[in-house]
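Aim 2 progress update. The chain analyzed this quarter is reproduced below.
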Amino acid sequence: MVDVEKIVDKVANTVDENILTEEERAEILTKRLEIDANSDNRLAKMIRPLITLVACAVWVFVHCVAVFREVPSEVMYSADAAFMTCIGFYFDARRREKVAQRKAMAAIQIDKQRAKIERQEARVRRRLLRRQKNKE
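Predicted structure tokens:
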């Protein structure tokens, strides 16, 4: 006979291995954006603005055509949705880049301050040791 539980377990395991959660998708997307931002390739850096400009051009075209001819509402809604999605993605990704850049700059400043404090403390310790040796 067919073991239903075994089949269900295999299907469930396969789905778990191959389907990503929202957090995993967001993590992969963030990594991809970081790779694109740090790339030397100009196209990789310009892909978000280019896609946003293309979506904007399509949106303007559809709305201009709608003034002179009847355009199906599905086309209008699709153009609006694509345009708003691209705009939202562009500005969200840009914000994430700026936040990451500011965090990196803050970490550098913190490291510089720590190094400065450590040098000052080392200098004070050396002076104290010299004073102790001179007193002896």
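Helices lie at 4-18, 22-38, 42-68, 73-135. The chain has a mean pLDDT of 82. These observations will guide the mutagenesis experiments scheduled for the next reporting period.
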